[in-house]
Structures are given as C-alpha cells and as structure tokens.
Amino acid sequence: MERRTFIIGAIAGGIGLLEYTIVSRWMKGMRLRTRISTSPPKAVPRG
Q: pLDDT tens digits for 20-40?
C-alpha cells in the first residue's frame, strides 16, 4: 500500500471516529433531557 493512501485512510478514519463520538454524546444528552422533563413546560408570562 502506498504511504499516501495509508495517510488518507488514517485521516478519514480519525474524522469518522470523532464524528461518532460527537453524535453519540449528543444523542445521550437528548435522552437524558427527555427523562428529566416529565412535567409539561410552564407558560412564560409576557408583558
């Protein structure tokens, strides 16, 4: 395998891993937020 091809593959793999980490943390945060807010949202008075 050429060195350049290996480097491009390594960079693409690193970007994919980073993307997976960010998305999985975001999804975990979304799940936690829905569990916490069990009561309906309160109306904010405007005036």
A: 999 999 998 887 776 655 566
